[in-house]
């Protein structure tokens, strides 16, 4: 029997877009996305589809088309669980902030709560799919909870990690490089795998649907993110060397990227990687390695994070030292706050840490980001607990207009590579700034020669 009803617990950056695409591609499947967060669900149901809580190019169109037909958003978690044949768990798995593994291990409390809820509510057999990125062998823990606290119904656990990148989520979901499904090796496990394969086969060619055992699937997700993050830290390490030697990191990246064994992608030097996955997943990998006594493996991967922290910190220090060793009372304008372009997500964004460093130096910061709200910026800074919320309030201002944001600034720092920054009237911005007018381009987004011609004192990364 094929799957006709799916429920997804968690309506976030992964659950929302993934389910919208499944609903869009599988009109015969009823897809219900549930979340405890009432405000989030209300926004997914907003009659004006532009107000959905996740900004992704192409997403609102897909939601508009499927919503109310076979795609539903609800806070009625129990009902949706009981009705579905297949339940995706797509809740957040932040890094632990307390107890054993603090600052490293994934906090699985939301996952465990979901498992307990499914066990309590389910009255028919279910296939439970891990969508959230999880430490290796979490499936085993979920299975234990389900089997020992359930109502005697059968549960099959699958691991189906999501490889979408934010900003290109819809594109990645519609045409994934691969879909990975891990499951039990026994007959029941293989049947469950087959049912999920059938769902994806509605639009993904079968040779791109990979099936493995559970542990390989879980570890592959952590490994993929670790390798990607490692590339960014590697090129960022070289960027610092370029600044000392007179080499240009863009030229180096191009030269090495043309080697087909290395490849050109993910070699853009930057102010540092952010996002909800890279740091968390590497910390997780480090924690797992340590817990098996593999100290060298742990140290090797931890260095990727150390390098990234160094890159963010180095950017802030460069601003301070270039502005004659003091930014106290100076207006510094941030263009961009999101962790990358084309998303409103700010989790672990480099901007947060650079701002924190500069606020410690008593700078006044103005921020313009096309998609991030003032409330989000405040909440990101307050979350660090470096300063009181009212102090953050006074020291940082968000603007709705980039030209206003840059007016009377001592310096501009580019933190996100939004395309629109390239087409600004930079002469107009220069004219309205204090002189000398500094630009610190944390994304190597602008044309250095043109900026210098206008009169800016311009510094990119790695040149
Ligand atoms: C990542 C993985 O790419 C994706 O497969 C996984 O499912 C989730 O984690 P995401 O975090 O959404 O996706 O974005 P990604 O494009 O990977 O960028 C992560 C960070 O690295 C961003 O801050 C980005 O600006 C930075 N980055 C990326 C660079 O600084 N240079 C690069 O060359 C590439
Ligand atoms: P991701 O980027 O992995 O999608 P998000 O933090 O954006 O992560 O989304 C996770 C969502 O899961 C949040 O909206 C949160 O409210 C929801 N959530 C967490 N635990 C539960 C639960 N037990 N039941 C329903 N929703 C949950």
From TrEMBL:
GO molecular function, one term: UDP-glucose 6-dehydrogenase activity
GO biological process, one term: UDP-glucuronate biosynthetic process
Positions annotated to bind substrate: 162-166, 221-225, 261, 268-274, 339-340, 443
Catalytic activity annotation: UDP-alpha-D-glucose + 2 NAD(+) + H2O = UDP-alpha-D-glucuronate + 2 NADH + 3 H(+)
SUPFAM superfamilies linked to this entry: 6-phosphogluconate dehydrogenase C-terminal domain-like, NAD(P)-binding Rossmann-fold domains, UDP-glucose/GDP-mannose dehydrogenase C-terminal domain
Keyword NAD: yes
Coiled coil regions in record: none
Keyword Ligase: no
Domain of life: Bacteria
Positions of the UDP-glucose/GDP-mannose dehydrogenase C-terminal domain: 333-448
EC number(s) reported in the record: 1.1.1.22
UniProt keywords, alphabetically: NAD, Oxidoreductase
Pathway the protein acts in: Nucleotide-sugar biosynthesis; UDP-alpha-D-glucuronate biosynthesis; UDP-alpha-D-glucuronate from UDP-alpha-D-glucose: step 1/1
Residues the entry annotates as binding NAD(+): 10-15, 35, 40, 91-95, 132-133, 166, 277-280, 347
Catalytic residue list: 277
PANTHER family xrefs: UDP-GLUCOSE 6-DEHYDROGENASE, UDP-GLUCOSE DEHYDROGENASE/UDP-MANNAC DEHYDROGENASE
Protein purpose: Catalyzes the conversion of UDP-glucose into UDP-glucuronate, one of the precursors of teichuronic acid.
Name of this protein: UDP-glucose 6-dehydrogenase
Gene source species: Flavobacterium stagni
């Amino acid at each position: 029997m094929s799957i006709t009803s799916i429920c997804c617990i968690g309506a976030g950056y992964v659950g929302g877009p993934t389910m919208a695409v499944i609903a869009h591609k599988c009109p015969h499947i009823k897809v219900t996305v549930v979340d405890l967060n009432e405000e989030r669900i209300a926004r997914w149901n907003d009659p004006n589809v532009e107000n959905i809580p996740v900004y992704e190019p192409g997403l609102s169109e897909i939601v508009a088309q499927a919503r109310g037909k076979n795609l539903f958003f609800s806070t009625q978690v129990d009902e949706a669980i009981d009705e579905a044949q297949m339940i995706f768990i797509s809740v957040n798995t932040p890094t632990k902030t307390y107890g054993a593994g603090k600052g490293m291990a994934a906090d699985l409390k939301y996952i465990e709560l979901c498992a307990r809820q499914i066990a309590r509510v389910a009255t028919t057999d279910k296939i439970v799919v891990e969508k959230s990125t999880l430490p290796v062998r979490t499936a085993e823990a979920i299975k234990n909870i389900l089997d020992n606290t359930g109502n005697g119904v059968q549960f099959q656990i699958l691991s189906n990690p999501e490889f979408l990148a934010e900003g290109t989520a819809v594109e990645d979901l519609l045409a994934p490089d691969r879909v990975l499904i891990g499951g039990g090796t026994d007959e029941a496990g293989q049947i469950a795998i087959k049912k999920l394969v059938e769902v994806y086969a509605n639009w993904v060619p079968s040779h791109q649907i990979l099936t493995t055992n559970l542990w390989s699937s879980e570890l592959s997700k952590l490994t993929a993110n670790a390798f990607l993050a490692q590339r960014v830290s590697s090129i960022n390490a070289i960027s610092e060397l370029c600044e000392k030697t007179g080499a240009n990191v863009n030229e180096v990246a191009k030269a090495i990227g043309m080697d087909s064994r290395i490849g050109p992608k993910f070699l853009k030097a930057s102010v540092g990687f952010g996002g909800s996955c890279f740091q968390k997943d590497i910390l997780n990998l480090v924690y797992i390695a340590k817990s098996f006594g593999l100290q060298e493996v742990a140290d090797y991967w931890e260095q990727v994070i150390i390098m990234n922290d160094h890159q963010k910190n180095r950017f802030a220090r460069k601003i301070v030292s270039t502005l004659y060793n003091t930014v106290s009372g100076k207006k510094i304008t941030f263009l961009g706050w999101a962790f990358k372009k084309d998303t409103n997500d700010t989790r672990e964004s480099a901007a947060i840490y650079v701002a924190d460093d500069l606020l410690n130096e008593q700078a006044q910061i103005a921020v313009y980001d096309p998609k991030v709200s003032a409330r989000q910026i405040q909440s990101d800074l307050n979350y660090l607990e470096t300063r009181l919320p009212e102090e953050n309030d006074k020291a940082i201002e968000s603007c709705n207009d980039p030209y206003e944001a840059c007016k009377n600034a001592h310096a501009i720092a580019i933190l996100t590579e939004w395309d629109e920054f390239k087409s600004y009237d930079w002469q107009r911005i220069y004219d309205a700034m204090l002189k000398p007018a500094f630009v610190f381009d944390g994304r190597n987004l602008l044309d250095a020669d043109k900026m210098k011609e206008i009169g800016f004192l311009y510094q990119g990364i790695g040149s």
